[in-house]
Amino acid sequence: MTAPEELDVTATIMAAMRDFTPRGIAAAVRELIEEGTLPSMTRLPTVRVLAGELHVSASTVSDAWRLLAREGIIRSAGRNGTVVLRARGIDISDRLERSTWTVGRHGMDLASGTPDVSLLPSIAKALRDVDVASVANYQVDSVLPGLEDVVRESWSRALSPDRLTMTHGAYAGVAAVLSALLRAGDRVVVENPSIPGVIDLVELHGGVPMPVGLDEHGIRPESLASALTTRPAVLILQPRGQNPTGVSMTWERAEELAAVLESSRTIVIEDDHCGAVSTAELTSLARWLPDRVVRIQSFSKSHGPDLRLAAMGAPREIMHRMELNRRLGGGWESMLLQRVLHELLTDPESIHAITHARRTYKLRHDLLASACREQGLETYGSDGLNLWVRVDNESRAMRRLASEDIGVCPGSPLTWDSPVNDHIRITTGVMPEAQAPRVAALLAGSAVAEPRIA
């Protein structure tokens, strides 16, 4: 006998049917999911039950379910049957717009999360020195040998990956790993709070985000242990200057997390988005899990977003999977830009410029954090280009700043499944130092609550 819950869903699907082929059944169910009639985690009827009600063969329904599973819309949940994951057309634009709608709207734009262009090293000399003729060749490796040497040397105290390549920025690197490893319905552990792009990438690749909490040292071990009971395929973490909280993973915390992960098969993606402008020590889980860690270091915040380059180190097998996908695309990142980056990483003037930028970002971060604390506001972290501030009411705090022509990023789009909106993110990296007391004073009307990050 069919359960009442199953009968309801079955009847809903039957009412939507127009075409009884596998593609027709898949289209009907897809439409019901995308319009919200069948929400996430709805249990779908079994193949046998639906086939009987639609008067089609079991293989017809099975083929329809297979089509939807490939799109990451549904998945088999073992004894719990087949369940709805999410709509294929996740509203990425809404999530991103809610986190970026204030960017560029105010005289003092502290919402963007971008570096200060005045602190980027000049690429003029590097462009003059690049030998264009030497890169006019289709038969090239994916990474410039000299550049690989420089990156490996900078990582040597924390990790030594089997293979190293360059990607089109950190997001592209994360996307490449997810594309190579994820199957529809795989769970992916993500930090909470985190940047919307991470959640978007996971869902676009058919994954199910599993949020874990943070404290001042990074991901909380007990939160990760709880998430691991769902057998996630991937863990994505930001080891330094976590966006938006600014917390950095210590070596002690890295060892704790590695111990929690040891008995699992979860692959770790370390997204070092701050890279060379971070003041925190470079740490990595690769010290304990060398065969399961992919390290990605962006050069966007340190050397310029328009270079569109990040270094990625990975175990041999994982890199091989990514390279198979890459051969069907661009093949390699521009050798011209890689040579420019190599010049910037080895030129004494550029190295000095990065040192100055790192100190300036730290100064701006600390000035605002100190000013906020003097006003009774709670802040988190000590690194990166952003400050995560606890407020009584997100909307009221943002309106107060906007009234003085200051734009900041709302915290709610960065916080996963939170019932309260009580944080804002302020990009200290572009804040004039003298404005720190003023910004803090404008926020002072927001009452503080008990300390917490997520």
UniProtKB/TrEMBL annotation:
InterPro entries noted in UniProt: Aminotransferase_I/II_large, HTH_trans_reg/aminotransferase, PyrdxlP-dep_Trfase, PyrdxlP-dep_Trfase_major, PyrdxlP-dep_Trfase_small, Tscrpt_reg_HTH_GntR, WH-like_DNA-bd_sf, WH_DNA-bd_sf
One GO molecular function term of this record is: DNA-binding transcription factor activity
Q: Which Gene3D superfamilies match?
A: Aspartate Aminotransferase, domain 1, Type I PLP-dependent aspartate aminotransferase-like (Major domain), Winged helix-like DNA-binding domain superfamily/Winged helix DNA-binding domain
Cited SUPFAM superfamilies? PLP-dependent transferases, Winged helix' DNA-binding domain
Give start and end of each HTH gntR-type domain: 19-87
Q: What keywords appear on the UniProt entry?
A: DNA-binding, Pyridoxal phosphate, Transcription, Transcription regulation
Show the SMART domains listed in the entry: HTH_GNTR
> Does the keyword section mention Transcription regulation?
yes
**Would the keyword Repeat turn up in this protein's UniProt record?**
no
- Per the similarity annotation, which family is this? In the C-terminal section; belongs to the class-I pyridoxal-phosphate-dependent aminotransferase family.
Q: What is this protein called?
A: GntR family transcriptional regulator
User: From which organism does this entry originate?
Assistant: Aeromicrobium flavum
